[in-house]
Amino acid sequence: MPDFTRTHKITLIPGDGIGPEVTAATINILEAAGKQTGCSFDWHNYDAGADAYAKTGEYIPKALYKSIEQNRVALKGPVTTPIGGGFSSINVTLRKKFDLYANFRPVKSLPGLKSNYPDIDLVIFRENTEDLYAGLEVMINPDIAQSMKIITRKGSTRIAKSAFDYAKKHGRKKIHAIHKANIMKLSDGLFIKCCKEVSEEFPDVTYAEHIVDNTCMQLVLNPYQYDIILTENLYGDILSDLCSAFVGGLGLVPGANLGAECAIFEAVHGSAPDIAGQDKANPTALLQSAVLMLHHIDEAATADKIQAALEKVYAAGKTLTRDVGGKSGTRAFSEAVIAAL
Fold first, then answer.
1. Could you say which of 62, 109, 314, 331 has the lowest number of CB atoms within 10 Å?
2. Does 237 qualify as catalytic in the annotation?
3. For this structure, is 213 an active site residue?
4. pLDDT mean by block of 10 residues, the chain; 341 residues
5. Which CATH number fits domain 1-105+249-341: 3.40.50.300, 3.40.718.10, 1.10.3720.10, 3.20.20.10?
6. In what residue span(s) does the Isopropylmalate dehydrogenase-like domain sit (predicted)?
7. Which residue in 16, 46, 131, 180 is the catalytic one?
8. Which has the closest alpha carbon to 256: 232, 299, 288, 283?
């Protein structure tokens, strides 16, 4: 039997809506795999958003901030963000608080799923702390609202460096920087200038630039022309959702928010309150995010075991959730993955 000498302290944010369900399923799978590989997890559980406010009077409790600072790794389920009012995005707040400047989103096909675009394998590197998505807004007067787009040399250079370092380490051969510098000549112009400067340090990686609206068309026409997409914050959010459709939707695609000191791993989908508590949610996105987390904490064997089991379940196609054409629920799906371990 494994001796469980490797115990990892992980901050856990189950989220709301379907968050607690997909989080529970993911934890069960991680702990089952850990029993086979000799690692265990010490989960430090915290609410965030409206649920946290109801209990503590804070949307992000100080204890949660402290936990992430101490553990340096967090796994996060979806948290509802109000539209057009209410509290600020928990995701954006945490990214800015811990300077999680790199949003890493691999988009890869799972076996057995029918798609108009089979065998997709691309990666998105999205700057995570600047741009319009950072939410820097003011009311000029009751009839004029202003959002501020801020692009810095520091932010642009370090996300470009992250993408090129990844390409070199993983044998990726091509990076496209995505922009709108034909119109936003200063802000997006600075971004692509920094990307080009970094590209010159990596002569073995082909570098190209595409305007964002053309990129949307090119992705639909031929996504295989892209290997790594390197882009600013807002464009990256939009393009990552577009790309998720190639592999089955947002219920499948993982995400990592990476900084120099901390990392938060999360599914890219929303909280889907319309199906919360109904055993219908697909935990694949959060599970694959947890696989990224396992690689981050040097538990590659556990990560590979879970990924292989997940792919085995998809290839068999017998216990899939409704969003990917199956008839099974969240619990049955997670039990099938555990059995496949």
1. 62
2. yes
3. yes
4. 74 94 98 96 92 85 95 93 65 92 97 93 96 88 94 98 98 97 97 98 98 98 98 96 94 96 92 92 97 97 98 97 95 98 96
5. 3.40.718.10
6. 9-337
7. 180
8. 288
